[in-house]
Amino acid sequence: MTIKHVLSVILLSGALTVSVISCKPKLSDADLKAKVETAVGSNPNVLVDVKNGVVTLSGTVTTEDEKRILETSAKSADNKAVKSVVNHIVIQPIEINTDVTDLTAKVADATKDFPAVTATVNDGVITITGTVEQARIQTLKQSLDALNPKKVDLSGVIIK
């Protein structure tokens, strides 16, 4: 009778061990969403939704490459937990502002807080010359980029 008890205990413990190992905690949709958002976090125009391991991306990007990269990043956020990726991202190219009169007025407004710089607009390209403090160069660049010119040329700027 002891052999039967020993075998029963061994079988029971073996079955228990196998069931505990195979019942790994599943990654919740909220945790998976956080992982995917971190992976695609470089684009604030993209929203992430997760339901039962299916990731849905929506929002806008400017190029097909950007759309593809975001989908690949979402898939690789957690290869085991992501069942599939539904990509509803829309490509919306940036409209380039080439109206010289309108762009010139907007550039003058954007640079009014930078008295040591001079801005010229030629065929949609904004050229900046003069001096700018290190702490303010990024603000200047962002405000000019927001005007959607063909290019912002800061090569003539001296940073102090």
Summarize the structure.
By secondary structure, the protein is an alpha/beta fold.
Written overview of the protein:
It is a single chain. With 160 residues, this protein is α/β, with parallel strands linked by helices. The protein has two domains: 25-91, Histidine-containing Protein, Chain: A (2-Layer Sandwich); 100-159, 2-Layer Sandwich (Alpha-Beta Plaits), CATH 3.30.70. The chain is built from five helices and six strands. The strands form two sheets. The protein has a three-stranded mixed beta sheet. A three-stranded mixed beta sheet has the order 4-5-6, with helices on one face. Strand 4 (117-122) and strand 5 form a beta hairpin. Helix 2 crosses helix 3 (64-76). The relative contact order is 0.10.
